[in-house]
Design a protein that fits this description.
The structure is a single chain. The chain has 261 residues and is α/β, with parallel strands linked by helices. It has two domains: 1-68, Rossmann fold (3-Layer(aba) Sandwich), CATH 3.40.50; 70-261, no CATH class. It has helices at residues 14-22, 35-45, 59-62, 75-86, 117-125, 133-137, 151-186, 200-226, 229-241, 247-259, and strands at 2-7, 28-29, 49-53, 95-102, 111-115, 140-147. Helix 1 (14-22) links the parallel strand 1 and strand 2.
Length: 261
C-alpha cells in the first residue's frame, strides 16, 4: 500500500513534520476546511492508498520497514514502565492516555504523544455528518510512546528497576504463584463448560488475590514515580508540545523546570 503523510497545521505539527522530513519523507499540507472528507473520498477511490496524519503515530510506525527495531524491554519491564509513566499523567478533561513503546533512534524524542488516525478522523467527520455524533462525544484518546532507545528513558527505567526490585520481587513471586494456581484450575475445564463446581470458589479467591497483588504493584510503582521529577518532566514536555499542558499542570511544570536549572 502507498502511504501519504499529511499535516493540517504547519506550526502546531512542526516537530512531527520535521521528524518525517528527517527520515526523507515529504508531508502533504492539507489545511483546507473540506480536506478531511476529501481524504476519505480519495481512500475509497484508491483502496491501495492510505492517508495518515503525521502526528497520528511515531514516524517509524506510520511507515513500516522490514528492519524495524523492537523494544528490548521484557514484558515485566514494559508493565512497570507503563505504570511508572501513566500514573503521573495529569488529569485532562475528556482525554485518555495509553502507554506504548517504540525502539526509535537515540536522538529522537524520549516521549512522543500521538492521536490515533482512525479515532481522530471519526471525531472530525462527526462535524460534517450528523449520524456520526456519537464519535464526537467520545473522549480524546492519546498514545504516549516511550522511546526505549533514548538515554534518559533508559536511565529512568533502569533506576526504577533498581530502586523497586526489593519491594516488587516478593509481590511478583506471589503473583506468579497465584497465576499458576489460576491456570491449573482453569485447565480442569475439559469441555468448555467451565471449571468444576467445587473449584469455582477457589478460582474466584485466587483471581481476587491476583487483582489485589497487581494493585499493590501499581501502588508501589506509582508511589516511586510520584517522587521522580524526571518522569514528570518527560511527560509534561510531551504534553506541552501538543498544547495539552494547561492550568495547574502547566504551573507545576514551570516551577519544576526552574528548580531543575
Amino acid at each position: 500500500n502507498l502511504v501519504y503523510l499529511y499535516a493540517t497545521d504547519k506550526e502546531a505539527q512542526y516537530s512531527y513534520i520535521k521528524a518525517a522530513n528527517d527520515k526523507g519523507y515529504n508531508v502533504l499540507m492539507m489545511d483546507g476546511q473540506l480536506d478531511i472528507p476529501f481524504v476519505s473520498m480519495l481512500e475509497q477511490k484508491n483502496e491501495k492508498s492510505r492517508f495518515v496524519r503525521v502526528d497520528s503515530d511515531v514516524i517509524d510506525n506510520l511507515i513500516r520497514k522490514e528492519d524495524d527495531k523492537k523494544s528490548e524491554l521484557s514484558a515485566d519491564e514494559q508493565a512497570m514502565a507503563s505504570t511508572l509513566f501513566k500514573s503521573q499523567i495529569p488529569a485532562i478533561e475528556k482525554s485518555e492516555f495509553y502507554v506504548s513503546f517504540a525502539a526509535l533512534a537515540a536522538t529522537d524524542q524520549p516521549v512522543v504523544i500521538t492521536q490515533s488516525e482512525y479515532m481522530r478522523r471519526m471525531k472530525e467527520m462527526a462535524q460534517f455528518q450528523s449520524g456520526m455524533n456519537f464519535y464526537g462525544e467520545l473522549p480524546n484518546a492519546y498514545n504516549l510512546t516511550l522511546n526505549t532507545n533514548h538515554p534518559v528513558v533508559k536511565k529512568v527505567i533502569e533506576a526504577a528497576n533498581s530502586s523497586l526490585e526489593g519491594e516488587l520481587k516478593p509481590v511478583n513471586d506471589e503473583l506468579k504463584a497465584t497465576n499458576s494456581v489460576i491456570e491449573a484450575i482453569k485447565s480442569l475445564d475439559k469441555d468448555g463448560k467451565g471449571v468444576p463446581e467445587d473449584k469455582k470458589a477457589d478460582l474466584k479467591t485466587n483471581e481476587d488475590k491476583a487483582t489485589e497483588l497487581r494493585a499493590k504493584k501499581d501502588e508501589l510503582i506509582s508511589k516511586y514515580a510520584a517522587g521522580n521529577d524526571t518522569v514528570k518532566q518527560l511527560i509534561d514536555i510531551a504534553l506541552l508540545g501538543n498544547g495539552l499542558l494547561k492550568g495547574e499542570a502547566l504551573s507545576n511544570f514551570l516551577k519544576r523546570s526552574v528548580s531543575l536549572l
